[in-house]
Design a protein that fits this description.
The chain is of the alpha/beta class. It folds into two domains: 6-13 and 265-365, Aspartate Aminotransferase, domain 1; 17-263, 3-Layer(aba) Sandwich (Aspartate Aminotransferase, domain 2), CATH 3.40.640. The protein has helices spanning 17-22, 33-50, 64-75, 89-100, 118-123, 146-155, 177-180, 206-210, 223-229, 248-264, 266-286, 313-324, 351-365, and strands at residues 6-7, 56-60, 81-86, 104-109, 130-134, 136-137, 142-143, 161-165, 184-186, 200-204, 302-306, 326-327, 329-330, 339-343. The chain has a seven-stranded mixed beta sheet, with helices on both faces. The chain has a three-stranded antiparallel beta sheet with strand order 11-14-13, covered by helices on one side. α2 (33-50) crosses α10 (248-264), α10 (248-264) packs across α11 and α11 (266-286) packs parallel to α13. The mean pLDDT is 96. Bound molecules: pyridoxal-5'-phosphate. The site of pyridoxal-5'-phosphate (PLP) has 12 residues, from α3. Its cofactor is pyridoxal 5'-phosphate. It holds the Pfam family Aminotran_5. InterPro entries: Aminotrans_V_dom, Aminotrans_V_PyrdxlP_BS, PyrdxlP-dep_Trfase, PyrdxlP-dep_Trfase_major, PyrdxlP-dep_Trfase_small, SP_NH2Trfase/AEP_transaminase. One of its GO terms (molecular function) is transaminase activity.
Length: 368
């Protein structure tokens, strides 16, 4: 038996109990009418969580990184200029993925720990095909203002598609894809949605779909072919066609997790994440620790904290895991040894979890 962990790193988080129970239900075939109903319902709930009416909203059968691949491989035509706002590891990864799809990448580098500077992104190129940014940079704990980026692109009369990584944001902080002018976005299940890793909620609007690559290099992630898989209206009369075997157990689990989130209400879920994150950040500072992410742009669901001088960061993480069953994350990239990452995502965004992790850290650091 594996002892239960408190998963308080950058993901996966502990799933909502409803999402875990759903995994134990009888397995359905991927064309079973009961499963198709669950899939339709899941896509509908995803629209609510994304804040979109996009008909092409579905869970891709792979993790968040496949969402990133799908976003670029379906929208980048060879030679397209893609402006990527880079303020952490996942922005960096976007530049790699876009380049592999044949983009002429214009990376707008930011200091890690700071949000995306909308003016610099807009000034990077006069007419990009795509502008891409990470909403919640899990590597640094920073939130960027996607609403402002979308508004600025519109104000400029830009034709660029806005492509957004919302892996760590959905289910944790406000996301309003349509209001913000987001054309393509992807997420993951194992962060704030509180479901095990394995699916990538994805949404693409009409304008982006019309401009898509007809025969993308990826067969598996070809959105044109995936239409039939989710019974998209108008595609073969809404009939389901076999494309790949839907991971039916994972979709049932996502269905249950989304129902749990929407039952609580998105506003309440966001407020719960905000309260937990603020309490954690205040508690860490009370302990004399310093936060890494710039004030005013700190994510509540992922807190980055500087490792104090003279402390072995890996030893602290090991102690937390061995003695308290608590997993926290190391820093990312150049900050691997100087920053810890503490996630309060989904089910873990609760006052008792805050108290638990603060007490354990205080004990392990000998500060209490
Ligand atoms: C976790 C994460 C990803 C990658 O998702 P995987 O599920 O690990 O493939 C991409 N972007 C961000 C912001 C993430 O936090």
């Amino acid at each position: 038996m594996i002892r239960e962990r408190h998963l308080l790193g950058p993901g996966p988080s502990n799933p909502y109990p409803e999402a875990t129970s759903a995994l134990a239900q009888p397995l359905l075939g991927h064309l079973d009418p009961e499963f198709l109903r669950i899939m339709d319902d899941t896509c509908e709930m995803l629209r609510t969580v994304w804040g979109t009416t996009n008909s092409r909203t579905l869970p891709l059968s792979a993790t968040g990184s496949a969402g990133m691949e799908a976003a670029f491989v379906n929208t980048v035509h060879p030679g397209d200029v893609v402006v990527v706002a880079v303020n952490g590891l996942f922005g960096q990864r976007m530049t790699d993925v876009a380049a592999r799809c044949g983009a002429e990448v214009v990376a707008v580098e930011h200091e890690w720990g700071h949000p995306v500077d909308v003016d610099r992104v807009l000034a990077a190129h006069p007419a990009p095909a795509i502008v891409a940014a990470v909403h919640a940079e899990t590597s640094t704990g920073v939130r960027s203002d996607v609403a402002a980026l979308g508004a600025a692109l519109r104000a400029q009369g830009s034709e660029a598609l806005l492509l957004v990584d919302a892996v760590t944001s959905i289910g944790g902080i406000e996301v309003r894809a349509d209001d913000w002018g987001v054309d393509v976005a992807y997420a993951g299940t194992q962060k704030c949605l509180g479901v095990a890793p394995g699916l990538a909620p994805f949404t693409i609007g009409e304008r982006a779909f019309e401009r898509r690559v007809e025969e993308p290099r990826s067969w598996y992630l070809d959105l044109g072919m995936l239409g039939g898989y989710v019974g998209e209206a108008g595609v073969q009369g809404g009939q389901r066609t076999y494309h790949h075997t839907a991971p039916t157990a994972m979709v049932a689990s996502l269905h249950a997790g989304l129902a749990r989130v929407l039952d609580e209400g998105l506003d309440a879920v966001w407020a719960r994440h905000r309260a937990a994150g603020e309490a954690l950040q205040a508690g860490l500072q009370d302990m004399g620790l310093e936060l890494f992410a710039a004030e005013g742009s700190r994510l509540p669901q992922l807190t980055t904290v500087k490792v104090p001088d003279g402390v072995d960061p890996a030893a602290v993480r090991r102690e937390l895991l061995e003695r308290h069953g608590i997993e926290i994350g190391a820093g990312a990239g150049a900050y691997a040894a100087s920053v810890w990452r503490i996630g309060l995502m989904g089910r873990n965004a609760r006052p008792d979890t805050v108290v638990l992790v603060l007490a354990a850290l205080r004990e392990v650091l000998g500060r209490g």
